[in-house]
Automatic annotation (TrEMBL):
Its EC number is 7.1.1.2. This is NADH-ubiquinone oxidoreductase chain 1. It is an enzyme of class 7 (translocase). It is found in: Membrane; Mitochondrion inner membrane.
């Protein structure tokens, strides 16, 4: 039990540290995409910037909005961060203490709970802007979650296993069987994590930063950490289920995650924000029929075998 607790704490600390330096990478990529320098003052080449940002956020005074539900206002960021870090215990590593035989089902359950953190954060703020942002984010997350989970069943049925540790048993990357499916999965992952160009939960020009408008200090930092931890986890999940091969090593997996995380940043730097009604139409009229068709293909393949 003590060993499991130590491994869990170390995993969470590593993810938080990875998120901190992913923010530096994001600011550097976006700055070069916009022909500017980005953070370069704090430490060597700006490497101490995330530590300075974390110090500023955690020593900043916390502000409770008038009329807000204080207990839920504090609980919502903690719930979001806890769920984001809990997902990382599915990471297929030799250092894992527990073997989760039905890891995909656990992933489905935890991702379904993510929307509650966003909704509770917006509702408990007692702000119409925060509540509007929470409604948008919830509708977007629930919609794309449906197609994303159906897309994930494609490699699961091919491999005939719900365990993350068995994802490399197919022999070659699953994405080579149906390449468009990988692009639809990647787009759904961007929408699921509320990233640009689908960042309607935090559309500054329309809804004043969305559901997190009333959060500051440590509570805002927890929401921020949860969002970026989810992004890195989606990159890891894409690498494991769609790009993994029999002989993949931790180094190859790390490089795949880094490449996919940079693609998240390049998409943000290259594309303008999408229109909300077109986003929902894209999900229900394009991605959902496509994911169902892919699922029918893999079921027919299984019946022929």
């Amino acid at each position: 039990m003590l060993q499991y607790l130590v491994i869990s704490i170390l995993t969470c600390l590593c993810i938080i540290l990875g998120v901190a330096y992913y923010t530096v990478l994001e600011r550097k990529v976006l700055s070069y995409a916009q022909t500017r320098k980005g953070p370069n003052k704090a430490g060597i080449a700006g490497l101490a910037q995330p530590l300075a940002d974390a110090l500023k956020l955690f020593i900043k005074e916390g502000i409770m909005p008038h009329g807000s539900n204080v207990s839920i206002f504090v609980l919502a960021p903690a719930l979001s961060l806890t769920l984001a870090l809990a997902l990382w215990h599915l990471y297929p590593s030799s250092f894992s203490y527990k073997y989760v035989a039905w890891g995909v089902l656990l992933f489905f359950c935890v991702t379904a709970l993510n929307v509650y953190g966003t909704m509770l954060a917006g509702w408990s703020s007692n702000s119409k802007y925060a509540f509007l942002g929470a409604l948008r984010a919830a509708a977007q997350t629930i919609s794309y979650e449906v197609s994303m989970l159906l897309l994930l069943l494609f490699p699961v049925f091919l491999i005939n296993s719900c365990s993350w540790e068995d994802s490399s048993s197919f022999g070659f990357p699953v994405m080579l069987l149906l390449i468009p499916l990988s692009f639809v999965w990647f787009t759904s992952a961007i929408a699921e994590t509320n990233r640009a160009p689908f960042d309607f939960a935090e559309g500054e020009s329309e809804i004043v930063s969305g559901f997190n408008i009333e959060f500051s200090g440590a509570l805002f930092a927890m929401i921020f950490l949860a969002e970026y931890a989810s992004i890195l986890f989606m990159c890891m999940g894409t690498s494991v289920w769609f790009l993994s091969i029999n002989f993949f090593s931790p180094l190859v997996l790390t490089l795949e995650i880094l490449l996919l995380s940079i693609m998240f940043l390049l998409v943000r730097g290259a594309y303008p924000r999408y229109r909300y009604d077109l986003l929902m139409m894209l999900c229900w009229k394009s991605f959902l029929p496509f994911s169902l068709s892919g699922l029918c293909l893999v079921l027919m393949y299984g019946l022929m075998l």
